[in-house]
Design brief:
alpha/beta; Rossmann fold; two-stranded antiparallel ribbon; 7 helices; 7 strands
Amino acid sequence: MTNRVLRIDASARHDGSVSRDLTDKVIAKLSPTDVTTRDLSAPLPLIDFTWIGANFTPSDDRTEDQKSTLALSDTLIDEVIAADTLVIGLPIYNFGVPSAFKAWIDLVARAGVTFRYTENGPEGLLTGKRAILAVASGGTEVGSDYDFATTYVRHILGFIGITDVTVVAADRLMLDPEASHKAANAQIESLAA
């Protein structure tokens, strides 16, 4: 049973957003007791030289300015840590993820915090969580050779330890919207709460 959901909306659109609609339906199906929403239509800052310097300074040695620089990143990571399930509304833009979602990833994927390097390679530290991607695309077929969005998101979530990833897709909406919506709704109905 999913108790705590982190909802991430990556669409720049509000009205008429298929990924937001799918996300609403997924969350209704899960019936969580608590939902935290992170709407990326209000853009996150991109990492820069100052952020990188703060991030790679050992935590005990960080100045107050460096701690302040990392505060948003810390908050975003805390939201993921607190969640049992991430429900990510993910439109495909130009075969990949929206830049706003990439900014979220850059702030969340932090060495020593959400993953670490070991002698056996990288190890994700955010284990025991589930992610559901509510994907919408105009022409890109999810799982095709030119779908660089879902393969990337699966990879990066696995990299930070979230390997239980389900994709609900309303893809190729420009070709057959009715069939796309019907397929996505059927996938949502088959989700386990």
